[in-house]
Amino acid sequence: MELLQHDILIVGGGGAGLRAAIAIGEENPDLSVGVISKVYPMRSHTVSAEGGAAAVIKPTDSLDDHCYDTISGADWMADQDAVELFVNEAPAEMTQLEHWGCPWSREPDGSVAVRPFGGMKIERTWFAADKTGFHMLHALFQTTLKYNNVTRYDEWFATKLLVHDGVCQGVAALELRTGQIRAIAGKGTILCTGGAGRIFPFTTNAAIKTGDGMSLAYRAGVPLKDMEFVQYHPTGLPGTGILITEASRGEGGVLVNKDGRRYLQDYELGEPLDVGDPEHPRKRTMELGPRDRLSQAFVQERRKGGTIDGDYGDYVYLDVRHMGEKKINKKIPFVRELCQNYVGIDPVHELIPVRPVVHYVMGGVHTNIDGETPLPGLFAAGECACVSINGANRLGSNSLTELLVFGARSARSAVRFGSQSTGIAAEEITAQAAQEQQRIRQQFFQPGDGSESISGIRQELTTTMEAGAGIYRDEKSLQETCGTIRELKERFGKVELADHSLTFNTELTSALELEYMLDVAEALAHSALARRESRGSHQRMDYPERDDEQYLRHSLAYHAEGDDPRIEYLDVVITRWPPGERVYGSK
Amino acid sequence: MFMVRELTCLFVGGYALFLLILASRIGDADGFSALLQHRLVIVLQVIALPMVLYHTVTWLNLTPKVLVIWRGESRVSPVLIAAVHYFAWFVVSVIILWMVSMYR
Amino acid sequence: MAASEAKGTDKTVVLEVFRYRPEEEEEPTFQRYEVPYFEDWVVLDALNHIKDEIDGTLTFRWSCRMGVCGSCGMMVNGDPKLTCAAFIRDYHPATIRVEPLNYFPVIRDLVINMEDFLEKLTEVKAWLVPQEEKPVSEGEYRQTPAELAQYKQFSMCINCMLCYSACPVYGQDSDFIGPAAIALAQRYNLDSRDGATEERAEVIFSHEGIWECTFVGDCTRVCPKNVDPAGAIQQAKVSATKDWYHSVLVPWGKRDVKSR
Question: Chain B contacts of C145, Cβ < 8 Å?
Fold first, then answer.
């Protein structure tokens, strides 16, 4: 097999990956970049993001305010040096994207407009109607077309990191068209593979969010950090899980229970203002509280009997009728479209049924503020990475900005590393890729006993994750889930594919994705079991308080072959914001 | 359906050809009216009229696609643009009829 | 779609699906599958059910299932559709025929080769070329809401290529640049910040570009995002013509690069 080679490899063609590619295209045009993506880049999940991307621009705003909002939103689990850096670089990155053509919505004077968002004291969320992720991704993708030094490997599925002499020297990837696994060498490899929402049954996430890069790093010995922190977005459509953006609340939408009551006021999120009040929606209050608190309020409201029963579980209502047709069409037109198409209701006149659904994984591949992982030659950025700026709960509109800031930073780190590289061990990594081809043939094309199916194991996995590692957890539920995952991993070995073809075998890629999902689920469940406190989105009914003394630390889950993961801890970096109480709803 | 629209072009062109032939007989009063009364020509008229009307209507309906006028953030209503064209068609037709009536 | 299975149903619907396995057969075939009928299922749900429960070899692309990624375009009963937005209830009880998008080479089953489109995106220079360079430190380029509105519609393209499958001109001549690529070129031409209309003109104001379009209008009809590529192309024809007259009659004058 011929060895494909580049200076820098990027695995994943979403917002972070494309930003990384552009960074090298702009700053190091003499280096060659390979972007490996299992789907065409414009299909990446960045495309579904709706609400906006945060960066300080208003004169009434300040970098420190953005820091404080992010750190308190993260329930103090965020590394403050990383947050300071992120907040600092955000405005320039967002402006740069505007220069690359992103069609930000504007104020009448032509300057970029911002809207209020959950957990943020001052408006700083830049937006492009309510298809911000779509516009950002397409602006980035179309910009990458300019650079001759960027080679894309579209519909190549990464199956293994190629590590030799303790250095990551590339990836083994399956070319979907031909079914061949090739080694692609790179002096630096950046993982930008996104999150893993698909390990849960109800999620806003697309089919492709299966934690690929997280598992690749995990199996290469890199720890996954803070995996127990999973964000449920408070307003997803029941059943499909389709996202109804936070922007609908930022623009004034309210959540009501079956009696029409704005129930969030019962959960320490402040006092509701009348929707006609000019100050509504008040920041960091009620519907503009942080996502973890809103999702938890839903569960508690359900226990009180305040939710409505439906075919796909219970739900509450999001009411945007008072916004009026004109404002809805201007600010949240996509929401209207989605409701009409998928629920058959028009939000201008009717209430939108919503419930919390899994949306984002705060945890991920452990990196420092430059996107470096502990494995030399391996970097990570975006949702698959954990720097951490999001800590125990991410604020809406921080992650799109995160893609840009850390996509660019990790690219620069990779370039620096690559410039000092002593070369690629071509023979060794080519051999590893050949072994990988063998492994996959043996594992999946061998006749099994027909007792296990991909969809069967996948369903059992998602069921146990929701039951044991959902919004509220306890020792027993987590132990059960850990046990089920162990069992599923074993049973997975018996899966045999019906499709032995080499041409575009998506049954094979589904099986590989399920393998990744099991790894991610294992890291998540064990990290959650080990964290005996409640913080942000990780709520233990048996340990309901936050415990800074023992747990103001990141959990690091290390893969152990044939055994449960080993959990270690790493102190959170505190600079200028000593741990305090998270307060929302104050006047 | 677009094939039908394309086909009507044949009739528009064909009718224009017919008008040219007619025009060449101006001055020859007998030849002129003989042509007009010929059976085939009457058939042509009967078929051509709806074809040309269909062509005109579909064409006018498409004008807003081509003529985009902005007022601030929104476009001038496509209905208005088409309506203006219909009105112009009406005015031109009236003028032509008036001109014809002057030559009685 | 895990929750759908929670409700029982005894109604079914039949899908007739195009199969092509290049390693096994020379010619494509059709395969019939009977799947449970649910009120809120889309064609994509049925395809996933087939792959998960009946026939793991059925191959197709999909991702977001909410009509924004553009992966799942296929011919449904002869019409190009996003299968995540085509509701079974609109076809049931009739058999639903699912085929790969028209006018693209088929790789396998319902998966087509879309390289042609990606090459065209690069050809038409579908990216922003600022009229004047400005450092990031000086802030954003100013663009009023009215200026944004000029090109906004054309920026909504999700690259699903349903328009190419609906275009009889593309069907006959794959050199035709095509609706989406031209609409995206126009998206940049009309962007007040952009200055590359002339550069793009060579590619799109050409025989394989706008002039090959005969304004059938089917592209606009099938577009799931209301991009109106047909409108984009006709407007481009008008502005190209105006430019031409301008350059002929007033050769010394500055070319109106923002002509609409």
Answer: 72-73
Q: What's the fold here for domain C115-259? A: Fumarate Reductase Iron-sulfur Protein; Chain B, domain 2 (1.10.1060)
pLDDT per residue as tens, chain B (104 positions): 677 878 888 888 888 888 888 888 777 777 777 777 888 888 888 888 888 888 889 889 888 888 888 888 888 888 999 999 999 999 999 999 999 888 76
Give dist(CA B63, CA B78) in Å, integer.
8
Q: Does domain B2-101 have CATH number 2.30.30.140?
A: no
Q: How far apart are CA A269 and CA A287, in angstroms?
A: 8
pLDDT digits (tens, 9 = 90+) for A407-461: 999 999 999 999 999 999 999 999 999 999 999 999 998 887 778 999 999 999 9
> In the predicted model, is pLDDT for residue A587 greater than 60?
no
C88 Cα to chain A: minimum distance (Å): 13
pTM over 0.90: yes
Where helices occur in A235-332 by DSSP H, the ranges are 247-250, 291-303, 324-331
Q: Could you tell me how many CB contacts below 8 A there are between chain B and chain C?
A: 34
Is the Cβ–Cβ distance between A586 and A270 less than 8 Å?
yes
Is residue B37 within 8 angstroms of chain C, CB to CB? no
Question: What is the chain B residue with the closest CA to C149?
Answer: B73
Rounded to whole angstroms, the Cα distance separating C169 from C104 reads 13
User: d(Cα A478, Cα A464) in Å, to the nearest integer?
Assistant: 9
Give the fold, CATH level 3, of C8-112: Ubiquitin-like (UB roll) (3.10.20)
Domain ranges for chain B, please list them: 2-101
Tell whether ipTM is more than 0.90: yes
> What pLDDT is stored for residue B62 in this prediction?
86
Q: Alpha-carbon distance A187 to A170, whole Å?
A: 7
State the Cα–Cα distance between residues C35 and C92, nearest whole angstrom.
11
Nearest to C236 by CA among C202, C201, C195, C208: C201
Q: Check CB contact under 8 Å for A208 and C63.
A: yes
- Give A578's pLDDT tier (boundaries 50, 70, 90): very high
Cα A525 from Cα A462, distance rounded (Å):
12
- Domain parsing of chain C, residue ranges: 8-112, 115-259
Tell me which of A49-58, C1-10, C229-238 is least confident: C1-10
* Measured CA distances, C56 to A424, A498, A501, C108 (Å): 39, 6, 11, 14
> What sign has the CA pseudo-torsion C97, C101, C105, C110?
negative
- Cβ contact A122:A11 at 8 Å: no
Contact B8, B54 (CB under 8 A): yes
